[in-house]
Design goal:
By secondary structure, the chain is mainly beta. The protein has three helices and 17 strands.
């Protein structure tokens, strides 16, 4: 008999001899909840790879990426010593707050379609100047960091959507104009700062 087989027999024998309360404690899995569904931003499916994050009391408790316009967050784990039961779970899609929330319940795997209204996906917003710009930037003053959308590699960009009332830097490759939502944004070749009206 191999060493592995002997060790396995010993482990099983010891497990059978343990008192029931100790077996329960050793075999117990942490409580878990799952949530899945579509993720939309400005009524468009969230781009491939966009992060969906779940929060309880302001702390991130789970993260997944969008695939095919949907997310599947299988494991919102309750750590030992915490009590999530009945707590509100809120979500962000691409760093933007989703309208929907749910309540954490152990053992539940529920559908929840997440929507982020009031934003426009960068590719949609700048669709009228496709091929006439190289990059768009936005500065998050609260976090003191820049976010970019690179038209050549949008999947590597961390600027996912434009929000009404904020300013964005766009580098145009020629004189052109963005037309979106009944608004016209004239751009000169080079850097342009626009205030997004949505």
């Amino acid at each position: 008999m191999s060493r592995f087989a002997v060790a396995l027999v010993l482990v099983v024998a010891l497990a059978l001899l343990l008192p029931p309360f100790l077996k329960e404690r050793l075999m117990a899995q942490p409580p878990v909840m799952g949530v899945y569904g579509s993720a939309t931003m400005g009524w468009e499916p969230a781009p491939e790879g966009t992060e969906v994050a779940a929060y309880i009391q302001g702390e991130v408790v789970a993260r997944v990426n969008v695939s095919g316009g949907a997310y599947n967050m299988k494991n919102i784990l309750q750590p030992e010593g915490a009590d999530y039961q009945g707590q509100t779970v809120s979500f962000t899609v691409g760093g933007e707050s989703a309208q929907e929330t749910t309540v954490w319940r152990a053992g539940v795997n529920q559908p929840l379609n997440l929507t982020v209204p009031g934003v426009t996906l960068v590719g949609v917003a700048l669709g009228s100047i496709f091929g006439k710009y190289t990059i768009a930037w936005w500065y998050d003053a609260e976090k003191q960091q820049w976010h970019k959308y690179d038209a050549a590699v949008p999947w590597l960009s961390d600027l996912v959507a434009l929000r009404r009332g904020l300013g964005y830097w766009i580098k145009a490759t020629e004189d052109t104009a963005i037309f979106y939502g009944g608004n016209l944004y004239p751009l000169n070749k080079g850097w342009n700062l626009i205030g997004w009206l949505g």
